[in-house]
Amino acid sequence: MTSAPNTTPRQLFTVLLAGGLVLMVVHGLGRFIYTPLLPYLVADNQFDAADGAAVATWNYLGYLMGAMLAIRWHRIDQIRVMLPLFMAVHVVTTLVTTQTDQLTLISFIRWLNGVANGVVFVQAPALILEWLVWRNRASLSGLVYIGVGMGLLISSGLVTGTADLLTGAERWWPAALLSIPLAWWGAMKLRQLDVPVRQQTDTGQAVVNTPLLDRASIPLFLSYAGAGLGYILPMTFLPLLAKQVLPDEHALLDGTWVIVALCTIPAPWIWNKLGAKMGDLPALRLNFIIQLAGVVASVIWPGPLGLVLCGLLVGSTFVGTVLLTQRIGRALHPHQGPRLSAAMVALYGFTQMVGPWLTKQWLDAGGTLVSAFGIGVAALAFGLLFAFFVPRPEAWHSRS
């Protein structure tokens, strides 16, 4: 058995910072900057709301496909090659988006950007988790997701700060320019991480993966599916909903996304602490209840009160759902590592893709965006239900 290497606080900070920046780039400046951009792109007549939902669906399809690629490329030596490659894909696709108003090309580019997002969002946290586990610091793994919240806040600032200066495809320039140095530095730091390529048990034998799907993990996967479909509607359409239900010049037209971003930043730390204090599984159930209340509020009170509650409650929970579910899954299936993360993100990606597609069908059929949020309510209720069927990992492993 190899003893854990010594790790300084500076090394821990550098690795977590690199991971956070990488997630900030692909998730904040790649995926979720589209949410505050969407009302402006619609107002610029680049496309209408239904076409905007279709573009989002293409991006989420790419995310799903990227996560599935990450299942194939789950070994540490593969991650060291694929992570920098797909960070480059993110940068190039974002630059291309600045050059076109053609809907078909935008859809293709956003699909390819989603592929890069899916691969990186699996591989970067999984690589860091393996690095931390080897150093007996796995409890810090959730902190890397702070980068997601920072990305939401920065993306909001980039969009609103340049709203009167740019139009149409030009609105993507701030994200493209900021992505270049951050993507390069973060990817290079993670590529250099000292992580064993071959994992071994304490007895020195090669680890054998257990099945991903069994009576313990299936309810967790179903619960996670509900979470993916439930949170993606407000995370894609909340600013557009604000534009539809609020008067012109109202502070919440841009403020809803700022609320989401500000609440997302401390969320990983909060849910990390709650999981450690009350257990990851009870914390996950509480997380679902709070998140469900947020989406319900936007349906019952589709005005300032509902928008603020939705931003507060969804923003403060959705990253917690990710980190808690990932930890529970790893506890149920030790030694799965990146393969487990990839399977979880692939499922999450599929349900996120379904959300905007269902919204487009609903809008095309004459439904309203407010009523479409009811899909999110049903999905989160589904996820909450199955969270109560997930066994405690310690009880599962101690069964006779």
TrEMBL record:
GO molecular function terms listed in the Swiss-Prot or TrEMBL record:
transmembrane transporter activity
Q: Does the keyword Transcription apply?
A: no
Keyword annotations for this protein, in alphabetical order, are: Membrane, Transmembrane, Transmembrane helix
Q: Which Gene3D superfamilies match?
A: MFS general substrate transporter like domains
Annotated localization: Membrane
* A single Gene Ontology CC term: plasma membrane
TM annotation in the entry: 12-34, 54-74, 81-99, 111-133, 140-159, 171-188, 221-242, 254-271, 283-300, 306-325, 337-358, 370-390
Q: Which InterPro entries match?
A: MFS_4 (IPR010645), MFS_trans_sf (IPR036259), Sugar_transporter_CS (IPR005829)
Membrane topology is:
Multi-pass membrane protein
Q: Which PANTHER family match?
A: PTHR23537, SUGAR TRANSPORTER
Protein name in the entry: MFS transporter
